[in-house]
User: What shape does this take?
Amino acid sequence: MAPPRDRGNCGGGPASPALAFFHGRRPAELLHLRYAKFGNPCVYENKLFPWVAKVEKDWKIIRSELDRVLVRREELPNIQDISVDAKAITTDAGWKIFPLVAYGIKSEANIALCPETWRIVQKIPGLKTAMFSVFQPGKRLPPHRGPYNGVLRLHLGLLVPEHHGNLGIRIGSESRTWHEGGVLVFDDAYEHEAWNETGKPRVVLFVDFEKPLRFPANIINRMLLRLARLTPYLREGTDNLRRWERQFHGEEQDLDLKR
Assistant: This one.
């Protein structure tokens, strides 16, 4: 789940948060390129982020909670059923998700099912999104780019089937694959595509976190990411998530609708 793509004002008014985000995004992206602490590669070396080793160390704890979720894999939402922007790149049932948080919008019921995963991801500086991301057998995402370069993406391999070149991801000119317990950090603002042409599902912990930037770009980026939460597209995503939560966890589930 990512900040929304620019679709115009949509009636938000000249002072709306949506318009502020859309207008501020483009010049901010140029600023981020100049003030990036670690440059702007397609794929980052894990050693740049000391906390990555701790996430990798705890991967089996996360995997154990994932296994409980996967018992109900077919009931998980397709990403486009939650995040409306995802409809531009996927319309089938091949990419399912189990969200914990997306740009400040928490799923308290999902967090309650995966408390250790939640404890671990909260240690990631600038955490914005955390979810289990399931690529069903045969799923392929076409080339696309993220809408904003103010975040970096992390994939932690949790369930990775045996493969022979038929499972992987390309980011810019770099091609990678996943392995269980290993972290991949990349910039989704570069064109990227991913595929699972094996006969089994591939699951990663999918995290977006603030791109490390020097002052003043870091302040501007943080402000824009907060504005993104107020856009109509993320509000719609929140409504979609709440509807799915009631279906998955039961109508009697006491959900915190304000988060």
Remarks:
- The CA atoms of residues 137 and 160 lie 11 Å apart.
- Residues 39-211 form a domain with the Jelly Rolls fold (CATH 2.60.120.330).
